[in-house]
Amino acid sequence: MKKTKIGSLLATLLVFFMMAWGGHATASADDNSLQKIKDAGVLKVATSPDYPPFEFRATIDGQSEDVGMDIEVAKQIAKDLGVKLKIMNMDFGSTLVAVQTGKVDMAITGVNPTEERRKSVDFSNIYYNGGQSFLIQKKDAKKYKNAKDLHGAKIGTQTGSLQQTLSKKYFKDSTLSSMEKTPNLVFALKSGKLDAVGVEKPVAAAYVENNKDLVAIDAGYKLDKNETGAAVAFAKGSDSLAAAVNKSIDKITKNDWTSDYLKKSAKYMKDNTKDTSMTRYWKYFYNGFLNTTLIAVIAVIFGIILGILLVLMKLSAWKLLSWPATAYIEIVRGTPMMVQVLLIYFGVGTIVNLPALLSGIIAVALNSAAYVAEIIRGGINSLDDGQKEAAQSLGLSKVDTMRFVILPQAFKNIWPSLGNEFISVVKESSIVSIIGVTDLIYELNVVRADTYRAVAPIVVVMVIYFIMTFTLTRALNYFERKMNHD
Length: 486
What we know:
By secondary structure, the protein is α/β, with parallel strands linked by helices.
């Protein structure tokens, strides 16, 4: 179904980290997975609401809610267990990691129980098997009457997905390409960059229903239903929970409730596409703007405070202080922020269960601090040694010299560089969307999935980011002029 390659790689790295740290990568021998949920009275389920009709967002009575077939399955499981359901949204590549590290009880997000994934997590019985299709342009329907006609064509699939694996196996003579998001693939198809896009049948049906210029053809794959259907993922050794969930799935499949769930999803999708104007989704963008601003402001404040501390430690004559500071700065600057965000959320989360938003703020602040420290160090080193000597001749201590003479002048010199770091934090904080923080990028993907519009949501978010950074730039320039005047 859908799983990105980078998500799989990061999941593997984090699991090794958890195992080395002694975290929750595997369940204990004494399985209490079901009892823990009943004692808590809450079933925590990870999902990625950008994949209709499996899971997506819809506006119901003025409120944005998670809907879709997988959400209905989760509701039924929670009902049978007699507990409340708590949906935890995050990027798809993080859902299985959330299961492995104990952040959630299970993941229900259209995931296939392949042998590779069974090495990391346990799966329930299959609750849905819809088959595979190709989306093509309606004008090409005569050219591509069936999947055999696609040999030699340009085929796109989601990165790391089952469709990508199947296309490599069955269409070796075709030009294959992949992208992270299905909406991007569909846009590439409609713009003529691709001839076909491999997706699941329900997904294909949803796109055809909402795009008059698209049609679907059967993929014709010969598949093992035990690996290609949708199943619920649990942490390794969660036998009691898996047994309870399988009872719910048996009930769902026996009564063919998935058909009803898909019909209900179709209704929500139809409601979503009645009005796909961006003004209808202003609350999504507004909430994303608020969270993006909150993360940036708090991260910058704490980043500066920690950055000053780090640079003082690095400049210290005591190696016990300078070495840790240098090591921290080099490690943070030498690793991607994506890995740092995942490490804070899932790694530290094995000790302290941090919410996604708080984890995102901490990760961005810690990352920014390393860069701020180097900017401040450059400003301090740019000052003439005479400044320090003059302060000492006046009887100022080293602390007072740094506080009243060196740092004020250094900040005046580095203000433009510091301003660039502020702006970078605003833009780079978008990476927190991978753990389910509803920032602008997260809301962008939700709106694209709901409206089937590829470009309009991107333009809106670009405008919002531009307004934010332009305003910040003007404010920083104002204070720079004030400092220069003083």
